[in-house]
Fold this protein.
Amino acid sequence: MNRWPQVCLCVCLCVCLCVCLVWAAPGCDSEPVAGTDPGDQLPLAQGGNEVDAADLVVGDSEKAGDPGFSRESALTAADDSMRAGQTQRAISELQRVLLADPNDAEVLFRLANVQASLGEVAIAVELLGAIPEDHPQAGLAALGQAADWSMQLERFEEAERLYRKVLARAPEAAVVHRQLAFLYNRQGRRHEAAVHLQELCRLGNVQQDELHAMMVLGHAIFDDPNSATPRKKAYFPIGPAAEARMLYTASRYQEALAVLDPAVRAGEVPPSILAFYGLLSVESQDEQRFQWWLARADASVQEYAEYWAAVGTHLLSQRRFSEAIRAFAESLNRDSTDIASMRRINQSLTALGQQEAADKWIDRYVVQRDVTLASNAIGESGPPSVDSYRTVAEGLDKLNRPLEAMTWRLFEAFQRKASREEVEALNQQRMKLAASEQAFPGEAERMCGISREQYPLPKMEIPELSSVTLPAAGEIPTESFVAPVFKNVATEVGLDHNYQIASEAQLYRFALYQSLGGGAAALDYDLDGSIDLYLAQGSGDPPNLVGALSNLLYRNVAGQFEETTTVSGTVDKRYSIGVTAGDWNQDGFDDIVVANIGNKVLLLNNGDGTFRRHEFDSDPAMDVLTSSVALGDVTGDALPDIVSLHYVEDNTMLKRPELSEDGNVLTVSPASFVPGVDRIAVNDGRGGFQSEKVSDSAKAPSTGLGVVIADWDGQPGNEMFVGNDVRPNHLWSRVSSASEDPRESSSAVSGPGRTWQDVAALTGCAHGSGGVSTASMGIAVADFDGNGKRDIHITNFYQEPVSLFMNRGGSFEDRCVQYRLHRDSSSVLGFGCQAMDYNNDGRPDVAVTNGNIEKAPGEPLQQSPQLFVNLGSKFELTKVQDASGYWQGAYLGRGMTRLDFNHDGRQDFLITHLDSPSALMMNQTETPNHWLAVQLVGTTSERNAIGAQVDVHLADRVLSNWIVGGDGYLSRNQPTINFGLGEADKVTKLVVTWPSGEQQTYSSPVVDQYLLLVESEPRAYVQSSVDLNEFSQ
């Protein structure tokens, strides 16, 4: 590796609390060759030869038999020779003594030191091996010194064996605990190292780097071997397990698995690392490797926390929540620093409705995170802050780790040069703790108040060893694909839109409402067959948030956009964010819904190119920040309703953040604002509606950004998936109103006898793969894996991966790692995204627009868009050929709308930004693949047929797609269903499942055209192409 991951557990200052033991043989006058610090050891032997110790006892036999020979005289001569620099003469004198007595332990020790001084460390180790281990004076010292020299020779297994022998005879030898912990940490055997680190804490002989190493045991502690100025005690990694541990710490799970794979196959890893391999398998979402590992994880492997963490994560993905809780509890009982298991046990408890217990674990996770961050801050370059020491100590107290906390207080006292009396008082407290049973957390503290026995031990189906084969590790082979070609044609076609967040240009210090951006809706408002656009505008300032600029309505006339805002009566100068469209009053013409700060607006299409305005949900105090809005029938009465996401209900969202003393923006988390409760305006069928909260449940308030209305459960009626920022996502499903929660009762928004219930946690789409809530902005829905079910791609924050919730039929699994999305998606902050088959090969790809929410040190503010190509078994980030240069630029991207602007069967998209022109990306990718597009008109169902499914049957496969409402983040797509058919030039049949439950089949439709399908009508109408060929190339 050319570039090593950043050190997770930083090491800076090493202050030892007592004098360390050194190896020395009794009777030896010379200085010890090695001390407690590996940096003090001798240089590595240069080309030393391995020989038997007996071969070293050679010399002049005549002198050995000399009746005047004296041991003392020979030793004195050897000492004199060493002082004179006559090393070989000294060796000869010592060999004479050994010739007389080959078992002379002191001489063997002296000769070993002399050989080591010559760089012959291997010979020195052999000499020490001749000293009996039970020798009363020299045995222990010889074992320890031989272990140190074995470390120098990189004979790590031998060093470990020798250190363990020393501990068997001297269990409180701090130097040995230190050396073993140092070795294990460098080998990635973190949980084995922890045993010795805890003992050092008890002994009061612990260094600050060792305290750092106890923070999160699953994470690597290492130094960059390529550093120009390595520290004296450098944690240079040893072996594949260490490299895998570093990659794991950087969330590079598949790379870690590939690095560790050969050693595991060869059976060259200890049980702790085999447990780690299982965790890597499940984090990599590699089911085949997990099963192979499970068949080999014997009782010795099950002793380690990472075995249980792996099993728990597997069970969680299978929605076996009770067993998953037990597995995570077993892991946390063995390793109370297991932050991933803290998040996932919270996720499992939440799914079972045990929210009080779940909250305790997420609280613990937050404390553990903050303590680790403070510990890392101490280890960074520059003088550490005393406040950081206090934060660490106070946090460790909250985590029931009192001995570590007290030790950190001692380091803090040293740092601020406290009085001798204060240090002594702290040390007395430390000694008292060390001698008690409360030094480290007991099981009750480790379990955060739950009982392991309350939950069943997992009943794992262990495969036979011979039944599971292990595939070759490494990257999935990349298949070839046609390069995507797009061009920004906004200026060419007359689209002039720039979403402005204030009356004047503002480069940073965004208030919360300014950071969201504005959306766009694609619709054919005049029914001429061409796609028109309605685009939101901000531009206003507090207190009234009414600007000089209006939202814009563009009519598509033969491939050119004409701005018709004023003549159509759609002017709106309030601060608008989310927009959508749909046929509210079922008259055949699309209407428009706008989410403003201060109110919402329904623009009813008069059918003559004009609209009439209806305001609702008035908010004169401007407390509500509405993000996305969506139209679709969610009450089951075949009439569209309006779903509005209330991001926050907090007037402080209008305030811009302050600057720190160094000029950086003091960003405020969305979690600091009062979350909103989403609302549904229920259509009464007479032009009016009743607007109510979606639920009075305690789980209802949240920070929703993206929404998709669809038939998520395959049962009659639609559900609502809501992506929430920093809080669990919602999946609102209508259930019987006989609820355990009295606050969840029947209302107009859910229909008679029904109530909305959040089932996201139960179905697996509330949290990301790490068990934590995500930022959750843009949402793209498609059948990404070809199993005929709706999957969800949802964007995330900077340095956090997207979620790819794959639908398993009633439940979801976040498989972003398996499909290789986690690395490239973590380098950006994603907002709007869309599923679109850019090359019509039948596999939906994903386009994402990116941009940060604020200027922050070390983070890019403007960011480039991305296109991920679906290769079946993985997604691959690819370059886009763009003659306009847009794709190579960086922006504050926000909304994304999918459409086929020029009606050529190739999907285009519109992107909005903060304070820069919107882009219309025309798909110009040349491909021989065929396509088919379908527009649905409901009669028994609502006219837009939200929730309908269309299946296209080809000779060798079936393609599925859906009409959904909301389309993710702030925007609305062209309301058609597009299919890429690949090389197939014939469709066997097309099957529509309408929201009403009716199913219609159309035989052998012709490909490469648009079809209009009307519910209950057997005929498929061909929609003629609009002549827009000028912009097709």
Observations:
- The longest strand covers residues 624-632.
- Residues 18 and 205 are 6 Å apart (CA to CA).
- DSSP finds 26 helices and 37 strands in the chain.
